[in-house]
């Protein structure tokens, strides 16, 4: 079986949060393969630890990915502040004699360094065009944990576990490996908190992760971290505002200073994203939203809403509002040109992570979350059929079947973009629906 087929069979998807099926990504041809080791979301600590613990596996997985896309060069992007990890990776690249192909490049400690388009620019100097993806400029980007999973796939091992950081205002910060399908509450309780009545959980990083409405749910291959904060933490209050509330506040308070636009990472890359214009447009009862098409260029990094706006308003939400309206009217932005260059002011307007963390009120929680061996042995796992971009996996097991750890239980539907799913524990299938396959241990 080819490596690409092995990656497909192993159900590898983008582990950085996007969940794009990796076999589909690696079917492209590219000049560069880039490893996203930026981990720019504050408090999350998965990738930097994986690169320290499994450098050979990650380098080999990354090399395989690079060969698959036919890349001339493979670049690992990692923040310069992670000196130890950089040194380990450079040593291992030399030892493994892949230095002609793979190189570690240091990137600045800014937010959002891990946004694919920012990473592409920092590593290659190229700018992904508006509405484009990295392949538009000859690049394919894979996350560090994805590279590890590609290596495992090449050894015939499917994705059945997920690394997750548990962080925030909690007694115990840690990073753990748990079976896919584990109840989220089992992971949250590793924080040392038993009763979550006074807490709210962010699913993912504090910048882009949504606030969870409860502590239910099951771990998927996309989870990267849970940030637990007191309910009255300003970040929770800010992130819990509904789009209707945001619209009301936005209308009455925007002073059109355009800081949201001037500091927008996509605007600084040369795109036409201009959230202050979306704020202005909120004041009018517009039937035709054609003019607001630029809202579609927003990547929802949240910088404008959680950092840039001096009035504490919601420009990202204004973008989101118009994105919704544009989708309803089936209007799509069309770029006026295909080549973009960064704005001159970019170098002065990059946002250092430290300042961002302070602004978010997370300084006291910006601590290590060490990788910890824990026994999370859920009695039941709920494995979602859709953990990825594309169509859900189609179950290939039935209620009552006994399955072994690593056995494929859901396949890619014919001709679709999708990813296979596998049993993350050995046991009996007790439910098999369109959304979940439930396995009971034993
Ligand atoms: S949303 Fe905030 S940053 Fe943007 S123009 Fe209005 S006041 Fe200025
Ligand atoms: S969320 Fe705000 S800062 Fe981020 S891309 Fe969108 S408009 Fe720009």
TrEMBL record:
Keywords: 4Fe-4S, Electron transport, Iron, Iron-sulfur, Metal-binding, Repeat, Transport. Gene3D superfamilies: Alpha-helical ferredoxin, NADH-ubiquinone oxidoreductase 51kDa subunit. GO terms for molecular function: 4 iron, 4 sulfur cluster binding; electron transfer activity; metal ion binding. One of its GO terms (cellular component) is membrane. It comes from the Bacteria. Residues 245-274 form the 4Fe-4S ferredoxin-type domain. InterPro entries: 4Fe4S_Fe-S-bd, 4Fe4S_Fe_S_CS, Helical_ferredxn, Ion_transpt_RnfC/RsxC, Nuo51_FMN-bd, Nuo51_FMN-bd_sf, PduS, RnfC_N. This is Electron transport complex protein RnfC. The lineage of its organism: Bacteria, Bacillati, Bacillota, Clostridia, Eubacteriales.
């Amino acid at each position: 079986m080819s490596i690409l087929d092995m990656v497909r069979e192993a159900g590898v998807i983008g582990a950085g949060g996007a969940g794009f099926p990796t076999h589909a990504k690696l079917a492209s041809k590219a000049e560069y393969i880039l490893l996203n080791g930026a981990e720019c979301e504050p408090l999350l600590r998965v990738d930097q630890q994986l690169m320290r613990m499994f450098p050979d596996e990650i380098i080999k997985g990354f090399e395989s990915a690079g060969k698959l896309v036919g890349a001339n060069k493979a670049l690992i992007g990692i923040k310069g502040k992670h000196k130890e990890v950089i040194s380990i990776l450079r040593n291992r690249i030399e030892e493994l004699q892949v230095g002609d192909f793979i190189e570690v490049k240091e990137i600045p400690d800014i937010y959002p360094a891990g946004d694919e388009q920012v990473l592409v620019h920092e590593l290659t100097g190229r700018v992904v065009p508006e509405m484009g993806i990295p392949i538009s400029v000859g690049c394919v980007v894979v996350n560090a944990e994805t590279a590890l999973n590609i290596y495992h796939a090449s050894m015939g091992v499917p994705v059945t576990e997920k690394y997750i950081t548990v962080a925030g205002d909690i007694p115990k910060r840690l990073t753990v490996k748990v079976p896919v399908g584990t109840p989220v509450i089992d992971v949250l309780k590793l924080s040392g908190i038993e009763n979550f009545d006074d807490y709210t959980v962010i699913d993912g990083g504090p910048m882009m992760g949504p606030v969870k409405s409860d502590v239910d749910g099951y771990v998927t291959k996309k989870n990267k971290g849970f940030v637990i904060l007191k309910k009255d933490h300003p970040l929770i209050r800010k992130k819990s505002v509904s789009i209707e509330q945001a619209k009301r506040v936005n209308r009455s308070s925007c002073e059109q200073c355009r800081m949201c636009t001037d500091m927008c990472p996509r605007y600084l890359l040369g795109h036409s994203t201009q959230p202050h214009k979306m704020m202005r447009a909120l004041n009018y009862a517009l039937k035709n939203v054609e003019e607001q098409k630029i809202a579609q260029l927003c990547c929802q990094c949240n910088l404008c809403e959680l950092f840039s706006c001096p009035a504490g308003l919601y420009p990202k939400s204004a973008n989101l509002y118009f994105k919704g309206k544009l989708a309803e009217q089936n209007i799509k932005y069309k770029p006026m040109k295909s080549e973009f260059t960064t704005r001159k002011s970019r170098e002065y307007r990059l946002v250092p992570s430290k300042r961002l963390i302070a602004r978010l009120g997370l300084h006291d929680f910006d601590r290590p979350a060490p990788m910890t061996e824990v026994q999370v042995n859920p009695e039941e796992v709920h494995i979602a059929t859709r953990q990825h971009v594309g169509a859900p996996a189609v179950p290939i097991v039935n209620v009552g079947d006994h399955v072994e750890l690593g056995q494929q239980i859901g396949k890619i539907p014919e001709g679709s973009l999708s990813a296979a799913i596998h049993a993350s524990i050995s046991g009996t299938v007790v439910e098999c629906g369109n959304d979940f396959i439930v396995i009971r241990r034993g």
